Task: structure prediction
Amino acid sequence: MTDTTYILRIENIKKAFGKNEVLKGVSLDVRKGETICFIGPSGTGKSTLLRCINQLTIPDSGKIFLNDEEVTHAGPRINYFRQKIGMVFQNFFLFDHLTAVRNVEIALLKVKKMNPKEAREKAMFELKQVGMADWADHYPAELSGGQAQRVSIARALAMDPDIMLFDEPTSALDPELTREVLEVMKKLALEGMTMLVVTHEMGFACSVANKICFMEHGHIKEQGTPAELLNNPEFERCKAFIGEFREYSQ
Amino acid sequence: MDQITFIFDIMVPAFANGLLITLALVAVTAPIGFLLGVGVACGRVYGGKGLSWLMQLYTIFFRGCPLLLLLFILYFGLPSLGIVLTPFVASVLGFIFCNSAYNSEYVRGSILSVKEGQLIAAKALGMTKNQAILNIVLPQALRRSIPGVSNEFIYLIKYSSLAYMITVIELTGASKLIATKYFAYNETFIAVAIVYLALVTITTFGANALEKKYAIPG
Amino acid sequence: MALSILIDWFPYLFSGIVLTLGLVASALIIGAGVGLPLALGQVYGSLPVRSAIATFVWFFRGLPVLVLLFLFYFGIFPALGLDLPAFYVGAVVLGLWGAAYQSQVFRGAIQSISEGQMIAARSLGMSRFQAIKSIILPQAMRIALPGWSNQYPEILTESSVCYAIGVAELLTRSSQIVSQTYVTMPIYLACAVIFILLSYAGTSCIHMVEKKIAIPGFGPGGS
Result:
């Protein structure tokens, strides 16, 4: 499924909040169709890295390229890149005043200037993809966490992004609801979507990811395929983390 | 006449007299308006059906009737029924009605926000209903109503200016007389505006301090 | 006798009602039209903009309406060479006075909306302006409505102060009838009842609108 060209290039991204250096020079190349999972202790810059990619957080230095176009320092053109980079948040951030289908179509109408009929069709199609078509006319407050997260995935997909960023998409969910969201994500990965996922779900990371990046103290400390990380003795820190993590979650 | 003479020989003494009357209006109204407000609120919450209804009518009327109209009723209207009030008394009476009606809403809201368990617990200790209300519910409710009541106090400073419309020469009245007499509208009204802003700002600081002091933890 | 006087003079009184409602309507419109930009400026503006708006609010909320009316009618407007009729001065003063209050209601509503709404909107490629217009304001308006609707009875009763600069609104008309007929109490009480009914009717209308635009799980009136 993977392609040889890089769809996304991250070059030496640094970011500090005050004195707190969150990212200390992160570089990573992503091929089309790859799913990359970021794991590691909290506070090590995983979410900040994702937000730097679509410039919701402006990095202090370093560059981001999407299809060889520079995303950093894009000026107003950043709004174009953000359409190409879908993002899903831990707390969904659905628009509370809009029904599920309106949530999905609002950016189609306002940003893509699609006509209402087309936008509605597209929105319904995306809701169907995540199994939420029957809930189209419900407001966010009437949805379970898992349902809300699926709608927010549909909302991002509707923009036809080249790449999807998932920022701890299941951390706010009960185990049962987690499963339904992970199912949707797995399906997306199999269909060839390029995905960057910050997660604590080791099962998902090991079974779906092409590559796992273990982050610590603002660096990507170790990276490799799931098999490499679990079996290769050189990835000590990562294994220790996974071991600790498993102990806690049991 | 130059500006300096105008300010110091005319404006300052007139404003001083006016300010004194304004403060007198506020000082007489505020405590009575507050206590009456608490009474009306208790009547609405704890009174029988008749009393509760009557108190509701009281608040509807005095909140819905413009204060200026209320002053006209008291000052120009009552004499036709044989009751003649001085302008100052009519003003204070009008302010008390208005102030107490608004205060009663704040106090009522905070009485209702005190959990029912408090009253039950007090009764379980052998207090009568009145003792429980007086010793347990009201002390909590009144603290919670401080923001609303102090806000109403600031309103009172401002609407005390309406007394001028029934010939009480308070701060606004004093300024209007000078402004008209010396044909110095901008200077005089800006000056009086500064006095009001100072009064209101100082009171706001005081109210905030009071709120902080009596805030209940949690 | 009082009743027949009331009936005879009703057309006269009615013209006062019309003017009172005109004052209130223009004040509400000016208040919202000025109050909303002020609120946006206070939330999204730079420090000088924010402090200028805070000063405006402090000024208009710190002064009695009577003093504001005197200041603008006798002082500021004539000094600017504007010879405005009393009605317009009343509408503008009540409007700016209301705007100062409404800006605080709108500001609170905008600030109560979680940051995530803006982040999500921006992540979809909306510009800041689009996000404020399509995502933040529709929510903020619904949250602001109950606070905003408190403005109506307040401006209604406050509009009577325009009597002081000779606007022929309801209280002025009533007083004129009193001085013509020497019937005081019935006229004044009728005037009071009309004010209370106007207040009640308007508030009921606003509550109806609130119910109509309520969204489940969202703001007051939601489930």
